[in-house]
């Protein structure tokens, strides 16, 4: 299980001999699912090259506070806002002193001043420097400021002396960083979600669609991210901004959505079909705009669209835990339960779209979670709150199914 899935870690490297370990640290953090970007001080470049860190992290290394090219893309404020955690490893005595004193005279110090995220400092220095009263005073001040200090280990140092001052072992640093985050209910899982409506073209300017806003699907994508999952969001046309860190795939028609889903869902852990997919589409689409022909009207022959939810739920290989939505205007539980059976689903979420205060275009929803063994109502609340409860219900059902298999 990747403990740092979807986490953004800004690694600050300062100028000590232990800087060579930052290469291994970068790789280990990535192995746990983190995205890593690197800031190096001027002296750090004397011990390990920016090119090495760029090759390992997959991103350009940030070096200078007044680099105009960097500032135009991601300056010290943007870097500080980007990170979930800023990890300084190794942190020299000089950097710790400057950080504790509020200096901002280089990029890394300025980033630390601007940061509002979790801060972690892993000191590494000569044992006498670590034991010095001034260093301990600075470290204590950082602790009082809420900085997480990863105390150095004891052992033989590069200078030939023995004592406390060695950088904490890289696996231990990774573990300590991972422990700062609450382990998500879906940590390490891949979740594929469909959202929004589909549009079925009549001609180049007209289409058949529905009132779906996509709000529930997008809220579920955010909730799954919060639970630690890697999320692919396949979305029909909406006016919404996708949650940060999802893989967004935009489509128009039901057939386009099916194609996108079948590229992502096989092998995923969970599929949640929230999109209001048009049941029918015009048999033919006119190449040019259809002109008004007579007062008697016109007839459009419709044909059935593919059933995306059923296609996923009936996969023979790589079938994910499959969750559907039933937007109904009457007989809510009965119709939803039938859909659960007919489409071979593991769970279905039923909501009454006849109530204008919930469902389509509303910021609120009220649903019933239905499985083959029971049902659980989720009282009216925001779609964000409902989504978190749905994700919790999915995680609980997955855990229960795993126990039965075991």
Strands of the widest sheet, in order across it, are: 12-11-8-13-16-17-18-19
Compute the CA-based radius of gyration. Answer: 27 Å
Structural class estimated from helices and strands: alpha/beta
| Overall mean pLDDT | 90
- Strand tally is 19
Strand content: 15-25%
Poorly predicted sequence stretches spanning 5 or more consecutive residues:
none
For the biggest sheet, the summary is: 8 strands, mixed
CATH architecture title of the largest domain: 3-Layer(aba) Sandwich
Cα end-to-end separation:
18 Å
Shape: elongated
Reading off the top of the CATH hierarchy, the class of the largest domain is best stated as Alpha Beta
What is the overall number of helices? 14
Output the CATH homologous superfamily of the largest domain.
CoaB-like
Give an overview in words:
With 406 residues, the chain is an alpha/beta fold. The radius of gyration is 27 Å and the shape is elongated. It has helices at residues 21-31, 50-57, 68-74, 76-82, 93-100, 107-114, 127-131, 133-144, 170-178, 215-226, 254-264, 308-313, 332-342, 383-405, and strands at 8-13, 35-40, 85-91, 118-123, 148-149, 153-156, 162-166, 190-195, 200-203, 206-208, 230-235, 247-250, 270-273, 280-282, 302-304, 321-328, 347-352, 364-371, 374-382. Helix 4 (76-82) packs across helix 6 (107-114). The model has no long low-confidence stretch (mean pLDDT 90). It has 2 domains: 8-178, Flavin prenyltransferase-like (Rossmann fold, 3-Layer(aba) Sandwich); 190-280 and 299-405, Rossmann fold, CATH 3.40.50.10300.
């Amino acid at each position: 299980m990747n403990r740092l899935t979807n986490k953004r870690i800004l690694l600050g490297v300062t100028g000590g001999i232990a800087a060579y370990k930052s290469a291994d640290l970068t790789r280990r953090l990535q192995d746990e699912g983190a995205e890593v970007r690197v800031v190096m001080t001027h002296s750090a470049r004397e011990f390990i090259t920016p090119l090495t860190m760029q090759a390992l992290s997959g991103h350009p290394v940030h070096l200078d506070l007044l680099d105009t090219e960097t500032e135009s893309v991601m300056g010290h404020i943007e870097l500080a806002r980007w990170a979930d955690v800023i990890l300084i490893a190794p942190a020299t005595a000089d950097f710790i002193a400057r950080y504790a004193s509020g200096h901002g005279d280089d990029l890394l110090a300025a980033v630390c001043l601007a940061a509002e995220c979790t801060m972690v400092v892993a000191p590494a220095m000569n044992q006498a420097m670590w034991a010095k009263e001034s260093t301990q005073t600075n470290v204590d001040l950082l602790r009082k400021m809420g900085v997480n200090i990863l105390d150095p280990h004891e052992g033989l140092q590069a200078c030939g002396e023995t004592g406390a001052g060695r950088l904490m072992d890289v696996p231990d640093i990774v573990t300590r960083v991972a422990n700062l985050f609450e382990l998500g209910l879906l940590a390490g899982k891949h979740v594929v979600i469909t959202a929004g409506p589909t549009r079925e073209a009549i001609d180049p300017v007209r289409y058949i669609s529905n009132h779906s806003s996509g709000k529930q699907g997008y809220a579920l994508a955010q909730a799954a991210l919060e639970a630690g999952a890697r999320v692919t969001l396949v979305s029909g046309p909406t006016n919404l901004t996708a949650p940060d860190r999802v893989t967004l795939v935009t489509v128009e028609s039901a057939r386009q959505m099916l194609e996108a889903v079948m590229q992502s869902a096989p092998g995923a852990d969970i599929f949640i079909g929230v999109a209001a997919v048009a049941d029918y589409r015009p048999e033919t689409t006119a190449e040019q705009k259809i002109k008004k022909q007579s007062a008697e009207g016109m007839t459009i022959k419709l044909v059935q669209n593919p059933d995306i939810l059923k296609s996923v739920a009936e996969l023979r290989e790589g079938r994910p835990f499959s969750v559907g939505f039933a937007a109904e205007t009457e007989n809510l539980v009965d119709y939803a339960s039938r859909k659960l059976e007919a489409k071979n689903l593991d769970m279905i979420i039923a909501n009454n779209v006849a109530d204008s205060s919930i469902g389509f275009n509303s910021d609120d929803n009220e649903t019933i979670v239905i499985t083959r063994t029971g049902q659980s109502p989720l009282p009216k609340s925001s779609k964000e709150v409902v989504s978190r409860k749905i994700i919790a219900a999915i995680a609980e059902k997955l855990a229960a199914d795993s126990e039965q298999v075991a």
